[in-house]
Design brief:
Length: about 190
């Protein structure tokens, strides 16, 4: 698995792109929830402490790495943290589901593990992309090793730099929109 930092970095870049398409600035909780949704699928690692087998649907990269879980996370996040009258609520459901779903997609690009159960709970079949350039991260204190440094370098190349490009492009789009839109006090 990539580090939680890389999951959050990609999600934040996507958040910038989402923000650039909105007429108003999104609240701080949007950014916190963006990072949380991006890393929450890895809560399944607690299963190791309960001796849940890796390949189980409830094991690592199982149910919490599925499209079903991402949709549920999007619904719950939007309905709990954003009011019913919030104009963006439906968009936020899709956004938070998409941000959560980036987690298993990135995991499918790693060169280790058993794959990702994208279709859980309907199937426990595990998937990978055919091209897997990202080094899988060691769990626990193994991260603070030479192997951990190899992982960080891999993530910088394959996640952080593309995320930076997404964030940069989103910022350019946002600036262009702000220059071309007339000031509207009703939006504040």
């Amino acid at each position: 698995m990539p580090t939680i930092f890389s999951h959050a970095i990609l999600a934040s870049a996507l958040g910038g792109a989402f923000q650039s398409a909105q007429p108003t600035k999104l609240p701080g909780r949007f950014w916190i929830l963006t990072a949380v949704c991006a890393v929450v699928p890895d809560l399944d690692v607690v299963g190791f402490a309960f001796r849940i087998q890796y390949g189980s649907m409830f094991g690592h990269r199982g149910l919490t790495h599925s499209l079903s879980f991402a949709i549920l996370a999007g619904l719950i996040t939007s309905f709990i943290f954003f009011s019913a009258e919030h104009v963006l609520r439906l968009k936020l459901v899709f956004y938070f589901a998409a941000v959560t779903f980036t987690h298993p997609l990135i995991d499918m690009l790693t060169n280790g593990g058993l794959g990702v159960a994208l279709l859980a709970p309907f199937s426990n079949e595990r998937f990978y992309f055919p091209w897997r350039p990202i080094e899988v991260s060691p769990l626990g204190f193994g991260f603070f090793s030479e192997r951990g440094m190899v992982v960080v370098i891999s993530e910088i190349a394959w996640i952080w730099l593309p995320s930076l490009a997404i964030a940069f492009m989103a910022r350019l789009v946002w600036r262009k929109r702000m220059k071309t839109q007339p000031a509207d006090i009703s939006r504040t």
